[in-house]
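Field reference: sequence -> structure
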Amino acid sequence: MDLLEKIKILNNHLSAKNYKKVIDGSKILLNKTPHNDYLLNLMGMAYQGLSQHQNSIKFFNEALKLAPNNIAAMNNLANSYKAIGKLEDAQDLYEKILKINPNYINAYNNYANLKTIINDYKGAIELYLKVYDLIKNNKNIPKTSVTGILFSLAVAYQSDNKIDETKNTVNEIFSIDPTHVGAHKLISSLTKYSKEDEKSLAHIQKMEEIDKKINNNEHEKKIDLSYALGKSFEDIKDYDKSFFYLNRANNLKFEKKGSNLEHEKKAIRNIIKIFDGIDLNKSNKEAQDKNIIFILGMPRSGTTLIEQIVASHNKVYGAGELIYLQQVLKKNFVNDSKYQKQTIVDHQSLSKNVIFKEYIEHFNLYNFKENIITDKAPQNFRLIGFIKLFFPNSKVLHCFRNPMDNCLSLYKNTFASNIMNWTNKAEDIAEYYNLYSEIMKFWKQKIPDFIHDIEYEKLVADKESEIRKILKFCQLDWDDKCLSPEKNSKTPIKTVSIAQARQPIYKSSLNNSTNFDKHLSKMFSILKS
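Structure field:
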């Protein structure tokens, strides 16, 4: 078998996500042909698939030393830089690629994805439209690639609150592929279904017809359509049928991805153990030129709504759901998958605040002038001790709601990140909620005045009074715009909460869990009072 045949086999393994086979096979071939930039790029892609981005960067750079204009390796390197938060390096590479080849579609698409990270949706939309112009009339481009770009464009429009453009783009998708599952799911998130509305009932029927034709091995399509149908039947108050689809979606997710609950238990209890012996009143005192408002709590607890409220203020920039804090802490404090207590203690006393400096550098590509920034990453509730030590001027807003409603909302939604795999099983959701309660109790005992609690039920019952408390805690003057967060067009929304957060503050989700009591009694029974 010649080299090309062997490389073809490795490419097939890469497509099938058999990354270890790609790595092992490439190593054997590189021993025989060590200066092969194609194989080095292939190795990098395999490590990228395993989320081992530092290893992938090493191989992409080796490929580029041999072939400086290998734009495939350049594009892959940019993607790995983007994944670890080196956004400026990624941007430089995308722009370099497009100077070499102005028609390189992958670079446009990946650059557009970077633009969404930094909340430059205008720039992202322009890039997606450029890609669409390049491929829409090219008969050699698969239809799935065309609809894929259109779907990215529709999601960008939705995040930027351009709903008419979103719907128009979805209709364009349907003109190419009327059965496009992602587009149907997106439409379902924008639709309030009603038994009296023939159009919405027709859409439910259409989704059920598509569902029957999807092969059982097409897990992702089944999962997405199941969530869409679960949502639509809940809207029309057919809770039994809604649960049928939601249950199927969760079972498929668990079958495909499993649960990471045990890992999360170890991680959270390791943090409690470490910080039990750390003086949280000994913060790093280096002056900070930006103030961060960390908005956190259980996912689906109202964090997106709170960010929209706070970011409506004229002195606040809403940065959205960020991973920068986790990235910086992992880089500086994690060894052997655990936070190192002594390293944390050492950083408390440094003259320089390395953690804050590295965190704030991630905003270099963002376009804003405000000195107050929101960071809405719900699961930062695990990291409040770090926030107290290295962001002492920050504010922590802790969102919580009825535990059963919160857990039901998690059960009804899907999350892309593997760190959320504990949501793939109803009982694990409740167990995780108990872990969250445990660590929040720990932080409140250690630093009670550092955390402001926001109860969702109180907020929707008396929004002005609760919003005044929030702004006072954040040391912000009153701003009437905070009363109408649904009108906040300056802060994009990238999470599954997008449809709800674009509506006026409403009470309809209160005690929603009672509709599913008979189906989810086991999950609810696990919750500790």
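Note: The mean pLDDT is 93.
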